[in-house]
Design brief:
Elements lengths: L15 H4 L3 H4 L1 H21 L10 H12 L3 H14 L2 H15 L15 H38 L4 E6 L2 E7 H20 L4 E2 L9 H6 L5 H12 L3 E2 L10 H30 L2 E3 L18 H23 L10 H6 L2 H19 L2 E3 L1 H9 L6 H13 L8 H9 L6 H9 L5 H9 L9 H5 L4
Parallel strand pairs: 3-4
Antiparallel strand pairs: 1-2, 5-6
Length: 460
């Protein structure tokens, strides 16, 4: 039995509610709307400068022309699909569609300025820059910000909650839950600034980047300046003056590498929280009606973090491929980038889906107080670092003559479980000053967190 048409990608099916906003920018329809936007703005730019004697459009005519972009919807999508079925060329279909709108608006006299002196890539590279810029600013960055905000709340609320650290998977100098969240906040804030600072480049210089057709049509015009003004002033991008037929895509490689870096930090976050849940350092808050296992009713599985892991890996695989592929084009042009760029939305979609799962997952966990306290109380040997460091300070200050305090504590604690009573008795017998001895006797794993709480306050 054949099913009715179904979405092939889970991003367009199961997970559409989480990532659907990206489709407004990075779908085929979103790309075509951007192409129309570029064609319309190029028409307006040419009439504004009176190209070849064309009369400047009135304010009403410009508004009506720009409305074909803002009103772009299903009828336009369907009409363009029909045109492309005939032209077998997506950008040519857009040109014909824009010409039809000009005719409807009584603007036939400027019809030949549609797509004037443009190669398809002049339209495409600007359209991708416009759509990717909007998708990052309006969808991906807000999704990242929601996760960073949740992490910041955790950092602040749990800044004083002591936690046994684990380096190399072994008990280590205690920290606080909040400080560990703050580490991720700090990392992500720095990377966010890099993504937000991306320079979106655009070219608009003809078939091989030489303005050849432009110069033949009007040798007196300053075509590089016209191009720069159009790219920067009309479209809000950064002008790339030296290209082949295509914009070289270096900005895309930079952006996708940065987003992949963010993904990998988030992957680190997801695996850490998963591990802490398995250790009982976090408990999962039961969600009404939810099932953890089809056969084991007691289970609450950390599926939000597992889902995030998988989608971050998929996103990175695609982003890495895009960053590697797009920077290479044979001689002045080949079409490998055309197929590759159609997957930008998929790459960002898996990242956005992961961010959504992380945000929700962070709202469904709580501090596992019992496990945290038990591990701290069961690992008094972690105070060996504190004791040997204090002894060394006392030796330098002339209040102790102990030789090789590190070796002394290594003998006492390495590979052993040491009780509070054992450590107190050991400290009491040390040849150190009374104040130092009192500090060490009073110390516990739960209070041996240094400036962890204060460090949270360094977050911007």
């Amino acid at each position: 039995m054949t099913l009715p048409p179904q979405p092939l990608s889970p991003l367009d099916g199961r997970y559409r509610a989480s990532v659907g906003q990206l489709g407004d920018h990075l779908s085929e329809a979103g790309l075509n709307r951007a192409r129309v936007h570029v064609e319309v703005e190029w028409l307006i730019a040419q009439t504004d400068r009176g190209a070849f004697g064309a009369e400047a459009l009135t304010a009403d005519q410009k508004e009506a022309l720009r409305a074909v972009v803002t009103d772009f919807g299903q009828p336009a999508i369907d009409e363009l699909a029909g045109l492309e079925a005939t032209t077998r060329h997506d950008v040519k279909a857009v040109e014909y569609w824009v010409r039809a709108r000009l005719s409807e608006l009584g603007l036939d006299p400027i019809a030949e300025l549609t797509h004037f002196a443009c190669t398809s890539e002049d339209i495409n590279n600007l359209s991708y820059a416009v759509t990717v810029k909007a998708a990052v600013a309006e969808v991906w960055l807000p999704a990242l910000d929601a996760v960073v905000d949740a992490l910041s709340t955790w950092a602040t609320d749990a800044r004083d909650v002591p936690m046994l650290a684990h380096t190399h998977g072994q008990p280590a100098t205690p920290t606080t839950v909040g400080k560990e969240f703050a580490v991720f906040v700090h990392r992500l804030q720095r990377l966010r600034a890099q993504v937000a600072g991306t320079e979106y480049l655009g070219k608009f210089s003809g078939a091989t980047g030489t303005f050849s057709a432009h110069v033949v049509a009007d040798p007196s015009a300053d075509w590089p300046e016209i191009s720069r003004s159009f790219v920067e002033d009309a479209l809000g991008l950064s002008w790339n003056p030296l290209t082949t037929q295509i914009e070289s895509h270096d900005w895309q490689a930079e952006l996708y590498s940065r987003i992949a870096h963010v993904n990998r930090v988030l992957h680190n976050l997801a695996t850490d929280i998963w591990s802490y849940i398995s250790m009982g350092y976090f408990t999962q808050i039961p969600q009404a009606g939810a099932t953890g296992s089809s056969t084991m009713p007691h289970k609450i599985n950390p599926i939000k973090f597992e889902n995030a892991e998988a989608n971050l890996e998929l996103s990175c695989a695609l982003l890495d491929s895009l960053a590697a592929t797009l920077v290479t084009s044979r001689q002045q042009r080949d079409l490998t980038d055309s197929s590759a760029q159609r997957n930008i939305g998929v790459a960002l979609g898996h990242s956005v889906l992961a961010l959504d799962n992380l945000r929700r997952g962070l709202g469904e966990i709580a501090v596992g107080t019992a496990a945290l306290e038990a591990d701290l109380d069961g690992n008094w040997e972690v105070l060996g670092e504190a004791i040997q460091t204090v002894i060394r300070a006392e030796v330098v200050a002339g209040r102790s003559s102990i030789a090789d305090p590190y070796a002394m504590l290594k003998e006492l604690t390495r590979g052993k479980r040491v009780s509070q009573a054992d450590l107190v008795a050991f400290v009491e017998g040390l040849d150190i000053g009374a104040d130092a001895k009192a500090r060490l006797v009073a110390l516990t794993p739960a209070t041996y967190t240094g400036l962890a709480s204060d460090l949270v306050g360094r977050l911007s």
